[in-house]
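LOG
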Amino acid sequence: MRKLVQTGKVRVDGCVVTDPQLVVTKGATVTLQMSAPRPAAGAVPRDALVHVDPHVVVVRKPAGIATVPYEDERDTLDRVVQSLLRKVARPGTSIAPLGVVQRLDKETSGLLVFARTTSAKRHLQQQLREHSVHRRYVAIAHGEVGAKVHRSFLVQNRGDGLRGSTNNHELGREAITHVTPLESLAGATLIECRLQTGRTHQIRIHLSEAGHPLVGERIYVRGFTGEQLAAPRVMLHAAELGFVHPHTGQTLRFEDPIPPEMSAVIATLRR
């Protein structure tokens, strides 16, 4: 059964799941399709290139692929996008390695930007430091979530091996997340999160520490005593991205709709 899950033969509420440790809750519909193809590693369609110019490339990242290599990973987004750029470029055009200015968690889907020149990378990094990059996420969190601005200082290890907030401002890095509820669901809330800062796992940590871990969360759920709702992955999607173009000075804004596997969870929780 574990092998069937890992090879994409099992669906929960219509969504393919590949994690054998996924918690299936009461009311979920589990189906087995032996003819289902094995999920392709690093599979990113060509239309994932939302915007391409000589200075930047904006990408629609699917869930399940890491942004950059970690340990021995090969099929990472930066490498796959570089390969896609070669396919759409004129013959003989050299494609330089992409400059990483932001990251999305492996299970998070949505928009992010890579730099294609050193000057563009510096310019985008400065915008991130100044908190002028527009980043709007959509997520599903457990419980009834209210509007709130979450402010804390995050450290890599809060004492139990996990990232989290600290009361020692000298140790942590400031993290600010603006949360607004969009829709009440059964046992959860559809929310939007606007990042003022961009720390690792910032949204997941802030919601978890507030008692509302994201649906599909498997790391930041220690101490959560409520019923964990089933989902094929962490329900977090980078829906909007905006920044000033590092060469033209034009303000660019991009949007990406909620992906099908997340829409399926929302539909189930509405029922």
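LOG (cont.) second protein
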Amino acid sequence: MKRIILIAGIAALAACNKGPDVNVKNASVGEVAEKVREAAGSGSLVEPGKWQSKVTVLDVDMPGMPPQFAQRMRETIGKVQATTTETCLTEADVKKPKEDFFAGRSKNCRYEHFTMSGGTIDAAMTCNAQQGGTMTMTVNGTYASDSYDATMAMDMAGGRQRGMHMKSRIESHRLGECTGDEVNAKNKEVGQ
């Protein structure tokens, strides 16, 4: 779940009032991060400050999941949906996003495509898990310098998951200046 929230942060980093234009195919996470940095130029892509995010899980399907496991998963998802996360993005965070912001700490991810232009974002990424499985994720949404709304679909196959589909939505907006009681984006992952 943390990886979904983190990858969804792409939409937050991709925002710009003038609408940067990034369109890459078959690119590493680092290459996409660099293209987004280039699109921002010397300015920042989003407004620094206090951001509030809410994740809503729209659908989860794990074929063959035992009933007790399915119930625990529903309970966990219910807890996640009942909370919002407040994060402080500093000036440094928005001017130079780190590569791991785009795909967590995983170095095994590659974008099939990443398109960001005119207030919309469309991306598809595949990650190879250490346990032998793969995760494919798509992100589609809209953005501005002070808000974003994205829908993500994640499909996991092989490895320990043996097949799972999850669809979620993240809504985020800037609340104002940082107050010191938020999670600092440099020290903790969004959603922790």
